[in-house]
Amino acid sequence: MQTYEIPLVPGPTAVCQEVLAAYQVDYGSADLEPEFLKLYGDVQSQLQHIMGTQNQIALMSGEGMVALWGALKSAVQPGEKVLAIATGVFGYGIGDMARAVGAEVETVGFDYDQAATDLARVEKAIRRFRPKMVTLVHCETPSGIMNPAAEVGALVGAYDVPLYYVDAVASMGGAPVKADEWRIDLCLGGTQKVFSSLPDLGIVAVSERAWGFIDEVGYQGYDALAPFRTALADAYFPYTPNWHAVAGLCTASGLLLDEGLEVAFARHKEAAAYCRKRVQEMGLSLFPRDPATSAPTVTVVKVPEGVGWNQLDAALRRRGMVVGGSYGPLADKVFRLGHMGCQADMDLLERGMDTLAEVVQELGV
């Protein structure tokens, strides 16, 4: 199996050694041992701090999409209205997911190189459509865009929208996420981005408002949120919990909190600024159109004219470096440098940018 010395993918990220070590322990059965219950509670407390919430947190076995699907199916019934604010693959995709569960969906769509900063459009749609739920992706990793979750949350509150659903998978831990202050009812995360762990847990912070709707909907299924409301108190989970994954997340969350969230946020900003400076010095063009809306966890770069993405990717891999392509309309048009979690490391980034510069020169860009 090919391995790469310079991993700069936008997720799943390289796993921190301290986190990896948590997976090497034989913990026994989470169904039987009280130590697991304490661990689960500790992780909830850590995540509440990182996510800026007092809300209860569910840890669902599966990749981050289990959280996205589970929150939709648990809180929305067929025929109910969902307003999807979309600036990229995941934002538009969440709208499609809501349609798949039978919701009536309206999309406030923006170009893929544009953040949802036209709040007047969002407000007009909320006022006219009167949705049960507004959805937003905080950090659109395929396009590197950071969306104004706080400002949209203010509109959600002003118009008494029952539910605000925010995908914070690629921002949580690398940028401020303030679920309670921003009035987020379903705040969604995953372990494979800034936490630099394996892609094995979905994270959902659930507000009291959301629990009420979840009870009303009554969805039952592997990805249902309802059982998690009393799982810890009753010591009874809907399926066998992944003790190793929870232990890995506990270690990852602890590393962030020990570093200090503000310090971690500054580290990610520094990493992003360095990458973008070096990229521009190479004569490459950044994406999206407004640098102020670029995410601190990922840098997106236009594939140079005359050079195919596959050619660029192969040249980097030959030098031991791996980055990410993109999806949907951006496939083969941009590539992505993931500087999140333990990849937001200046030594790693310097090696990566030096390697990218060599490849750009070799390809005659």
Fraction in helix? 40-55%
The N- to C-terminal Cα distance equals 31 Å
| CATH classification class of the largest domain | Alpha Beta
Query: Which CATH architecture of the largest domain?
Result: 3-Layer(aba) Sandwich
Number of helices: 12
Poorly predicted tracts of residues: none
Molecular structure report:
This protein has two domains: about 5-15 and about 260-360, Aspartate Aminotransferase, domain 1 (Alpha-Beta Complex), CATH 3.90.1150; about 15-260, Type I PLP-dependent aspartate aminotransferase-like (Major domain) (Aspartate Aminotransferase, domain 2, 3-Layer(aba) Sandwich). The chain contains twelve helices and 14 strands. It has helices at about 15-20, 35-50, 65-75, 90-100, 120-130, 150-160, 210-215, 230-235, 245-260, 260-280, 310-320, 345-360; strands spanning about 5, 55-60, 80-85, 105-110, 135, 140, 145, 165, 185-190, 200-205, 285, 300, 320, 335-340. The strands form four sheets. A seven-stranded mixed sheet has the order 2-10-9-8-5-3-4, with helices on both faces. It has a three-stranded antiparallel sheet with strand order 11-12-14, covered by helices on one side. Strands 1-13 form a two-stranded parallel ribbon. A hairpin with a 4-residue loop joins strand 6 (about 140) and strand 7 (about 145). The longest helix is centred in the C-terminal third of the chain and has 21 residues, at about 260-280. The model has no long low-confidence stretch (mean pLDDT about 95).
